[in-house]
Amino acid sequence: MNVPSPSSPHPARPSADRPAADIAAAKQAERTRLRAARRAIRPEERERQSRAAVEHLWAWLGPRVRARVAAGDAPAVGTVLSMPSEPDTAGLRRRLIDTGADVFVPVIEPERRLSWVRWRPDAATRRARLAPVEEPIGPRHGLDALADAAALVMPGLAVTDDGARLGQGGGYYDRVLAALPPSVPTVAVLFEDELLPAGSLPLEPTDRPVDAVATAAGLHMCRRPLPGSR
């Protein structure tokens, strides 16, 4: 694992000396580029990278979950029902359930906010009203459901070496990251070419960083060593 020196837990630095409209336009152009690159990934390569990224993530997260289950403290883990264009995290959800974790996945609410529903393999889903994603049907919880989570595993379009994250543009996860206790490790799952050099993404003051990135190449620590990592 690549473990750089711990860095500040504060939000990623915004792009300096650029008008807000220019930063927003640059972010949208980068999203367009990244989405096109994802569409060009062949299905078998998408599957290979997804499996490998989950393996690397599980090598860290699995022991963490098992230790808490063995101590009688089955942890929550936040994750996502991946869109077809994203790395497939279905294998991660299955392992979490088999190990005894409580898996929570997001539901999109008005005002660009998320609530969280406990997920099981037999959970019924429906198409979200506010975004092109599947959502589970069930009782909805606030972010307090993840206050002591073993991890929050999230999507994204790109992340830099120092943790700056570019999402789809809704700001949902920036709000979550701003409110999540700093003790909860945050990990984005990406394709290999989406881990970018530090400073290469345009940033706004509201953009929040992640702690680590899982790709087919490994688990990259961005801002601080994750608990139990080597």
Automatic annotation (TrEMBL):
GO biological process: folic acid-containing compound biosynthetic process; tetrahydrofolate interconversion
UniProtKB keywords: ATP-binding, Ligase, Magnesium, Metal-binding, Nucleotide-binding
Residues that bind substrate: 81, 86
Top EC class, one word: ligase
Required cofactor(s): Mg(2+)
Coiled-coil region: none
Enzyme Commission number: 6.3.3.2
Annotated binding of ATP, by residue: 27-31, 165-173
Catalytic reaction annotation: (6S)-5-formyl-5,6,7,8-tetrahydrofolate + ATP = (6R)-5,10-methenyltetrahydrofolate + ADP + phosphate
Similarity remark: Belongs to the 5-formyltetrahydrofolate cyclo-ligase family.
Protein name as it appears in the record: 5-formyltetrahydrofolate cyclo-ligase
